[in-house]
Amino acid sequence: MRFAATDIAGVFEVHAEPHVDPRGAFARLYCPDEFARAGIDFTSVQINLSTNPTGGTLRGLHFQDPPFAEAKLVRAVRGKAFDVAVDLRPDSPTFRQWTSVVLDSRSMNAIFIPEGCAHGFLTLEDDTDLLYQMGRAYEPGQARGYRYDDPAFGIGWPKEIRVIRDADLEWPAA
Ligand SMILES: Cc1cn([C@H]2C[C@H](O)[C@@H](COP(=O)(O)OP(=O)(O)O[C@H]3O[C@H](C)C(=O)[C@H](O)[C@H]3O)O2)c(=O)[nH]c1=O
């Protein structure tokens, strides 16, 4: 497993480094000890699956405030997605900045998003499924969000948005 820093402190692209042979590939996707050696204290306690049949589906930007803030490890297990983390930590030098990773099921990469960041993604092809490993159990009613196009962030989404739920258009301005 290889951890690549991004423009935002604490956000990493995680490369699985699959073992490939004529049968296919085998990869370790998560290991708390390897995360700890990379300086990341992250224990996966809940796993979620997001299925998105239509390319151009946007979910997010979502986050939760303390004490319900969530760290998450997100990967595409089918298809491809433009995945975004936004730094919402007021004391961070990259406050309100964003970074992106293209999650590709074929390369087995992932993005680690620490507490204090918002998360969103835009699927780049039909039938894109994202698997989430969460650092805390789900707390109903704690979800907060900002619009994907909030001028405070200026996120450069790479393609037309074709599917988005109304609630993700109704978030307050940052
Ligand atoms: C997140 C979550 C949701 N739910 C229930 C609540 C709703 O009845 C249903 C769909 O939830 P929601 O519409 O919030 O799902 P998304 O819009 O895909 O939100 C997720 O996608 C963005 C991009 C994220 O980063 C978050 O992990 C999460 O907010 O699943 C659960 O039962 N457990 C959960 O952990």
UniProtKB/TrEMBL annotation:
<comment type="function">
    <text>Catalyzes the epimerization of the C3' and C5'positions of dTDP-6-deoxy-D-xylo-4-hexulose, forming dTDP-6-deoxy-L-lyxo-4-hexulose.</text>
</comment>
<protein>
    <recommendedName>
        <fullName>dTDP-4-dehydrorhamnose 3,5-epimerase</fullName>
        <ecNumber>5.1.3.13</ecNumber>
    </recommendedName>
</protein>
<dbReference type="InterPro" id="IPR011051">
    <property type="entry name" value="RmlC_Cupin_sf"/>
</dbReference>
<dbReference type="InterPro" id="IPR014710">
    <property type="entry name" value="RmlC-like_jellyroll"/>
</dbReference>
<dbReference type="InterPro" id="IPR000888">
    <property type="entry name" value="RmlC-like"/>
</dbReference>
<dbReference type="Pfam" id="PF00908">
    <property type="entry name" value="dTDP_sugar_isom"/>
</dbReference>
